[in-house]
Amino acid sequence: MQLFMVTASSDTAALQGLATLSKYLFTTGLCMIGVMTVAYLWYTIGTARLARQVASQEQRQRSKGKLAQGTRRAAAVSAGGEGGVATLVRSEVILHEQPDGEKPIPLNRSLVAVGRIGTTVGWFATLTLILSQVLRTIVTRHAPWSNLFEFSVSFTAALLLSYLIFEARFHERVRAWGLYVCLLSVVTLVIAIYVGTTYNLITGSAQLIPALQDQPILTLHVSMAIFAYALFSVAFGTGLIILLQGGSGQRIAWLPSAEAADELGYKAVIIGFPLLALNLILGAYWANYAWGHFWSWDPKETSALITWLIYAVYLHARGIRGWRGKRIGWLLVIGFAATLFTYYGVSFLVPSLHSYAK
């Protein structure tokens, strides 16, 4: 009996240590996201300023070219060329050739370095948040998304992971709007902290209600929603770019063109759409044995269904009807608004069977 008491006491101490470490990792991840946001803000301001300098230099070069045709000028750069490295007045401009012929975004060595620092810090922030949630899972003995605090932290990690994978594939074309992802991550974590402190959810997690005690279904059902929402958030960023670019072309030189943003948004939605469909299917299966019916028109499940239908309309309009430009941009914005309502609106504003989410 004494040996059992000693073992139980040591296990409790170990769990408390893991809980403390989880909290420290969460705090570290939050600080890293702050650093990442500063780096991407510096990068965004720098690329916008450099793009204006390049455009001004090109305009002067065209004006001089009309007066002295065929004259070479060592200090001129053509941002519309095939890529490579050229020199702007007092700034070495780097133009990375894009595989699809997209006009490259002007950069210099310092901006490339700042962008890489922001990306590296972002990966470490994502890793620390994931580790924090893994330790929380060990302590609470269930997946870390049984309430809005845990869900928001997991969503932030999924958002950063989804964005960084896109950035690793498309580099500066995606990094140009990384600041949006940073700011959204800060907002979701602030909300997580507010909910956690208000409902005392940061230091521990309450016992799961019976409907949530099927661990495999809980893990699959909610994880599908987390990554679907994260990918729709990434797609929303591309929708904003499409609208800012006027639906076509690249009138803002330091952002991707509307056409490139459209392709990136489609890639995000085409992954998130089936994930949300699986979330709805698993939710219906879960509801049948937890509450005795597949569908009850609960506000949360109804809102999720509406969100899924909006993205179904987006895919149909883009793929079958051939929609492009502002109409597609607005569909991505509307889809994100529905995602936000499903995520936060139902939890705070509408009585629901999912009220345990906070």
UniProtKB/TrEMBL annotation:
Q: Where are the transmembrane segments?
A: 24-43, 113-135, 147-166, 178-202, 222-244, 264-287, 299-317, 329-350
Instruction: Indicate yes or no for the key word Membrane.
Output: yes
Q: Its topology with respect to the membrane? A: Multi-pass membrane protein
- Major place of localization? membrane
Pfam families referenced in this protein's UniProt entry, alphabetically: Cytochrom_C_asm
Q: From which residue to which does the signal peptide run? A: none
Q: Membrane: is it a keyword of this entry?
A: yes
Provide the alphabetized UniProt keywords: Cytochrome c-type biogenesis, Membrane, Transmembrane, Transmembrane helix
> Which GO biological process entries does UniProt record here?
cytochrome complex assembly
One GO cellular component assignment for this chain's record is: plasma membrane
Q: Where is the Cytochrome c assembly protein domain?
A: 145-354
The UniProt entry, under InterPro entries, shows: Cyt_c_assembly, Cyt_c_biogenesis_CcsA, Cyt_c_biogenesis_CcsA/CcmC
What Gene Ontology molecular function terms does this protein carry? heme binding
Q: Which domain of life is it from?
A: Bacteria
Where does the record say this protein resides? Membrane
**Family annotation (PANTHER family):** CYTOCHROME B_B6 PROTEIN-RELATED (PTHR30071:SF1), HEME EXPORTER PROTEIN C (PTHR30071)
Protein name according to UniProt: C-type cytochrome biogenesis protein CcsB
Source species, please? Thermogemmatispora tikiterensis
Q: What is the lineage of its organism?
A: Bacteria, Bacillati, Chloroflexota, Ktedonobacteria, Thermogemmatisporales
